[in-house]
Amino acid sequence: MGAAQLVSLFLALTAAAVRAVSAAGARPSEVAVGALFTYDSVIGRAARLAVEIAVDDVNADGTVLAGTKLSLKSHDTNCSAFIGTVEALQLMEENVVAVIGPQSSGIGHVISHVANELHVPLLSFAATDPALSALEYPYFLRTTISDYFQMNAVASIVDYYQWKRVTAIFVDDDYGRGGVSALGDALAAKRATISYKAAIPPNSNSNVISDVLFRANMMESRVMVVHVNPDTGMRIFSIANKLQMMASGYVWIVTDWLAAVLDSSASRDLKDMSHIQGLVILRQHTPESDAKNKFISKWNTVARNRSDISGLNSYGLYAYDTVWTVAHAIDQFLNSGQQINFSTDPRLHDSSGSTLRLSTLKVFDGGEQMLQQLLLTNFTGVTGPVQFGSDRNLVRPAYDILNVGGSVSRLIGYWSNYSGLSIAAPEILYHKPPNSSAQQLDNVVWPGDSTTIPKGWVFPNNGQPLRVGVPNKASFKELVSSGGPGNVTGYCIDVFNAAIKLLPYPVPLKFITIGDGKKNPIYIGIVRMVANNSLDAAVGDFAIVRNGTALAEYTQPYVEAGLVIVAPVKQVTPSAWAFLKPFTLEMWCVTGALFILVGVVVWLLEHRINEEFRGSPRRQVATIFWFSFSTMFYSHRENTVSALGRFVLIIWLFVVLIITSSYTASLTSILTVQQLDTGITGLDSLISSSLPIGYQNGKFTKRYLTLELNIPESRLVALNTIQDYADALNRGPKNGGVAVIVDEKPYIDIFLAHYCNFRIVGQQFTREGWGFSFQRDSPLAEDMSTAILQLSESGQLQRIHDEWFKRPSCAYDDDSQVGATRLGIGSFSGLFLMCALICLFALVVFFVRICWQYNQYSNSDAEDEPGAADADVVQRRPSRLGSFKGLLQFVDKKEEEIRRKMKRRSSDKAAGSSDALSVSSAY
């Protein structure tokens, strides 16, 4: 290597060294990171120590922030939104590139606006309010699990045990309100609801908490979801225990704040543990790992050295990973060549005389780039994978589900956003296809040391009696009858009382009659009273219809019902000529003509070959009529020998069978059934007519007839009592009455039990049932439905029915058609046409054959010379065999005679030819 080359290599190495020194000088020696949390709190004590350990670990790790020290600047928010805001502003004066915290969701809402202006990312390990994920707070990043997922876990537990109503007990601040709002949405997706919200003001004393819990205990729901702060929440259970709300039948589901309290208590107070027996608790799930165990061991060692009696909870784990998240982001920020610079904002200045020192607040110039690096975080920490999804939340949110029993809390399952409830750890299920249908939890010991799953809802003994509205009707007393205040009877009332007795809890009742007993009340109006909370339930003959279900909740139907038409009928006295009524005049005429036609056709087909169809003209005419009409009784004595004749006869006997069967059935119907006074025989004729229609006042029938069937309201006549029904039908349309009445089948059955001169016409044309009405989403509706099914399966429902409705003497066992009609030609037109075509076909075939024979016969006759022996035949043979008259005469001849003559002529012709040939040979 030459000298010049050595000089060049030396210069290159020198330049590289200079660039390396220059680059090293670009990285700051120290980067300030802020921390905001309440030092003296359950979460703060664990998080403060975890953050300090994390900073030491980062600074000791050469792979992260090499050559740069992470400097922590902590401020105590003192569990106050105002003080927290002030401390946050003071922290921003120290040129921090990120803030770990705040711990409180309320402070987070306020500080996030400051972070937006100064471009300083906030990474909170404890502010779980889902509202902080809004686009309004772009610089807020949650490094723990949002309450959005926790409330979905709570909703999954509620749905798993098939509860429908919960009472939410929460602290009335941003944290509590945000969590309850998310709980309401999650429950709605599971077809459940928050029936009562028990809001506890922040920093409340025991008296205030006791009042809130007392009002919550007055509600129906026994599923309590508690979402409060860890530092004051334990008082709730001691007060609830005094109010006897920790007894059997109650359900307490507590969010992760209680798990933080229990994990942080180094020596648990046995008295406090006795207040929380049977609770179901959620805790953020962190998978087991060597890194987690190593950190827990280090944390416990440092805590013992500091004589810290508080224990580590899951929030401390997330605080530790938050520091590492910031460290990785800063490292990537610096490695990308970015500089940490701050600049003043001209909008932040102190007005004259102000001491707020707003001018000391500076904007982090690289805040946007730092935020992007934070969102790209992807490493495995002590809490598991640390990575943010598109919604800026941590991926794979999961919770442990604990059950408190004795002095410990037992793990009964897990919830994850991936597969829902399970008894297998989420990290195991992540390697399998999601299966949200296989929900499972271990057995739970509920409050009161009960292993029976609580119903989750009871009718409170200390509540007001159930206000039950009952229609006071003018008629149909068998169904509902009012004998005064509190004295209601009837089939519907007995069914309701029997179902109430089957409920596993007592339900005090107070019946309230609606109506004056002279005119039927409007039933949909009573249902509206239930919807408007004027009544708790409506009991009676309430049909389950569409406009009612839009207002209230109905039980399982206990009676099948549907609209039917009832009309007046009369008994018809049979007359001497009743046997002619089955067929109309046209039918009789056509049938008679067809009888004669078939007789003529069979005579034509049989005349030439059958001696029974020959003879004198009088005899032949008599044979035609006798044969045709005797087939009606299958008593014809003439035999048919021709193929065509037998074919026609077979078809004709089939036609006769149909005619006689129809005649017999129609005559029987005419002589036995009743006849309608009107022409309405069913729904179609009801709609097409213009006759007045009666209906029961107050029921849904009028709405159905006008809206669904488009029947003009002018045709409808409102009626109230059974007597009104009978009078209106007896008067008829001509005398101011009605032609028919449309009502539900149970009413009509009662009506027909008293009046036998009316009948149901047509078919039932709607399908609905009667049920009891309750307020929307009332658990009583579901429990009563179960009780009604139990009554039906045990047979008690039928026994109650039999006690009220005995079989009336004038009821009809059969469902025979009312108003038999006469049979016309239209009913048999196809049959008659088929018979006529068969006859025509047979005649055509017959005449074609006759014409062919006649042509052969004429040709053979013209070639022969008559001899002396045939003189007598010549005299009888027509002079013109080709004439129509000759054809008729040919038809009248016997078939056997024609064949014999044609055969003889063929023989004579052959003999003549032989003689002629002999004479020719002689010559």
Automatic annotation (TrEMBL):
InterPro entries referenced in this protein's UniProt entry, alphabetically: ANF_lig-bd_rcpt, GABAb_receptor_plant_PBP1, Ionotropic_Glu_rcpt, Iontro_rcpt_C, Iontropic_Glu_rcpt_pln, Peripla_BP_I
Stored Pfam families: ANF_receptor, Lig_chan
Topology of this chain in the membrane: Multi-pass membrane protein
Name used for this protein in its record: Glutamate receptor
Family per record: Belongs to the glutamate-gated ion channel (TC 1.A.10.1) family.
UniProt-listed SUPFAM superfamilies: Periplasmic binding protein-like I (SSF53822), Periplasmic binding protein-like II (SSF53850)
GO biological process: cellular response to oxygen-containing compound; monoatomic ion transmembrane transport; response to wounding; signal transduction
SMART domains: PBPe
Source organism (scientific name): Urochloa decumbens
